[in-house]
Amino acid sequence: MNYDIPTDLIERLIEIRRELHANPELAFEEYETTAKLVQLLTEYNIRILPLPLKTGLVAEIGDENKGPTIAIRADIDALPIQEETGLPYSSKNPNKMHACGHDFHTVGILGTAILLKKFEKDLQGKVQIIFQPAEEIGKGALEIIKTNVLKDTKVMIGMHNKPDLPIGTLGIKSGPLMASADGFTVEVKGKSSHAAVPEAGLDSILTASHIITSLQSIISRSISPLESAVVSVTKFHSGNAWNVIADKAVFSGTVRTFNHEVRQTIKDRLGEISDSVSNAFNSEVKVIWNPGPPPVMNDDKLALIAQGIAHQQNLKVIEPKMTAASEDFSYYLNDIPGLFVFFGTEGNYEWHHPQFDLDERAIPLSVKFFTDFSIALLNELSKNVVTI
Ligand SMILES: [Zn+2]
Ligand SMILES: [Zn+2]
After folding, report:
1. Which ligand is the nearest neighbour of the Cα of 136?
2. How far is the CA of 138 from the centre of ligand 1 (A)?
3. For domain 7-178+295-383, which CATH number applies: 1.10.10.10, 3.40.630.10, 3.30.870.10, 1.10.3720.10?
């Protein structure tokens, strides 16, 4: 669409971003951030839905009687990190920092909502604006889903800033983009004995060590070399004395994958290997699987539409590499086709670094991209040209 974003709106969004940056709040504690968003959305006459959410909110623009419903999601939480950027609007809250750029996502999508509100009467359907809490602990998306607000939502879109991409560059990729992030804990039960009389005990450290070594065969022997996945054991606790065989060993770790089949195979092999090895050592074992967000799987047709919009706006489109970081945006994609894009923000430091920063020129670019993308999606979906 041919329009300019008003300069005063851009200036205001930058101001809001700096205010959010100076006042970061951790997962499920985003009370002030939510209150600020309520105030701003109300000021722009944007409807906020009455949902049982403690933090975060869902607003809406347009009319579901005129066409399909789509949703745009921004995450709003910060991290338990002490900021070291030295910026004039650095975090005022000790050990809390917007080190993942969710303050940028929040204002980019807020600006999108404000512009879409201006075009509301022409929208061929409804756009839900989701300000989601608690992305950093992988739990906020589930809270939004639980409210059932997405039952008629046809498409879900969202973004993450990307410090290693220049301003004006967009990373759009169909298929897998970000990894699943599951955790596991294995408890081995043996039998304690005098260290000098090992035949009277069952050495849980030895059994657990064999399990850990065998787990490292999963990627090399059970997964195709054409797939990517990680199995890392990151914690191991056992024993209390130098001269006693430990009766219990507990270790934990994480599994990262880019597709559902590989994820399931690793989960199965983890159980089988733990059982068989423990069996071989006459020990008992318990495997606890803690599921985290699934992989982010982007929809092919949505990726094409997004590329078209980006080209119209003279943004440079690249196909980003997959990242083993996870994103709870993936929970939405279990039921709704969607697209998660990377927005170039040209920073010197990666996500979660105490000196993480981003270039605010990305703010108006993101507003224009998501506004046009939303309008294009509503038009495409209501014409039914694209079956998603
Ligand atoms: Zn993060
Ligand atoms: Zn993030």
Report:
1. 1
2. 10
3. 3.40.630.10
Candidate CATH numbers 3.10.20.70, 3.90.950.10, 3.30.70.360, 3.40.50.12780; the one for domain 182-290: 3.30.70.360
Residue intervals of the chain classified under CATH 3.40.630.10 are 7-178+295-383
In this predicted structure, the answer to whether residue 58 has a pLDDT above a threshold of 60 is yes
Ligand number, closest to the Cα atom of 79: 1
Q: What is the pLDDT of residues 275-325, one digit of tens each?
A: 999 999 999 999 999 999 999 999 999 999 999 999 999 999 999 999 999
Task: Tell me, in angstroms, the distance from the centre of ligand 2 to residue 257's CA.
Answer: 18
What whole-number distance in Å separates Cα of residue 84 and Cα of residue 356?
A: 8
Distance 158 CA to ligand 2 centre (A): 11
Q: Please report the pLDDT score of residue 385 as a whole number.
A: 47
What lies within 8 Å, CB to CB, of 80 at 6+ separation is 26, 95, 96
Give the Å distance between the CA of 351 and the centre of ligand 1: 6
Cα dist from 69 to 17, 306, 326, 338, 377, whole Å: 28, 17, 26, 13, 10
Which position has the token pair 């105030």? 39
- How far does the centroid of ligand 1 lie from the alpha carbon of residue 180, in Å? 14
Give the pLDDT confidence of 89-108 residue by residue, as tens digits: 999 999 999 999 999 999 99
Distance of CA 148 to the CA centre of its chain: 20
pTM of this structure: 0.90
Residue ranges, comma separated, of all CATH 3.30.70.360 domains in the chain are 182-290
